[in-house]
Design brief:
The complex is a heterodimer. By secondary structure, chain A is an all-beta fold. Chain A is built from no helices and 11 strands. Chain B is mainly beta. The termini of chain B are far apart. The mean pLDDT of chain B is about 95. The chains are: A mainly beta, B mainly beta.
């Protein structure tokens, strides 16, 4: 079983739509969780960390369910510039090593 | 502030040749990671260093791959001999001590082995 699993998509949504991505992880000892964004032919960049209480950054909301080992990312009022691949990231047992999901592709259509 | 620097950005070589990829981490970062990304397998960790010491190289595919970090500001990933299945984008990333801290990625080296 993969350490981190994501629905690869693609998700094609109209501008202004709300879209949600989900991710599950297998290591119950993981302590740090992130969403990274990767644009086409670019490097991954941190979008936001995911905290136990859930957190919001503008149009982006991340949530963590430790009991179900599940992470989500919600994007409201989608913009064309949100088109990218979103990577779910989990650390290995509390350490500095990360496991990356294979990514969920999002295309926002005018 | 300079980010992670990688060179070359693109490399095209023939099967059997030696390939050396280079990385300069962000100054002050004490963790350095080498990743490989392909469409089929996504982003895979190859090896990582802490304070220039290799900590986990279990992701290195085989003996043809080797990595070094002679000092805090430089690391290399070498493939010898290269094979077509090594074609991928190789990313270097660095981070600071606190466990689970953000990893900053370099722009990657796009390797094509013919």
């Amino acid at each position: 079983r993969k350490e981190v699993e994501q629905d690869p998509g693609p998700f094609n949504v109209p501008e202004g739509a709300t879209v949600a991505f989900n991710c599950t992880y297998s290591n119950s000892a993981s302590q740090s969780f992130f969403w990274y964004r990767q644009d086409c032919r670019k490097e991954p960049k941190l979008l936001m960390s995911v905290y136990s209480s859930g957190n919001e950054d503008g149009r982006f909301t991340a949530q963590l369910n430790r009991a179900s080992q599940y992470i989500s990312l919600l994007i409201r009022d989608s913009k064309l510039s949100d088109s990218a691949t979103y990577l779910c990231v989990v650390n290995k047992g509390g350490g500095n090593q990360f496991y990356f999901g294979t990514g969920t592709s999002l295309t926002v259509i005018p | 502030d300079a980010g992670v620097i990688q060179s070359p950005r693109h490399e095209v070589t023939e099967m059997g040749q030696e390939v050396t990829l280079r990385c300069k981490p962000i100054s002050g970062h004490d963790y350095l990671f080498w990743y490989r990304q392909t469409m089929m397998r996504g982003l895979e960790l190859l090896i990582y260093f802490n304070n220039n010491v290799p900590i986990d190289d279990s992701g290195m595919p085989e003996d043809r791959f080797s990595a070094k970090m002679p000092n805090a500001s430089f690391s290399t990933l070498k493939i010898q001999p290269s094979e077509p299945r090594d074609s991928a984008v190789y990313f270097c990333a660095s981070s600071f001590a606190r466990a689970g801290n953000e990893q900053f990625f370099g722009p990657g080296t796009r390797l094509t082995v013919l």
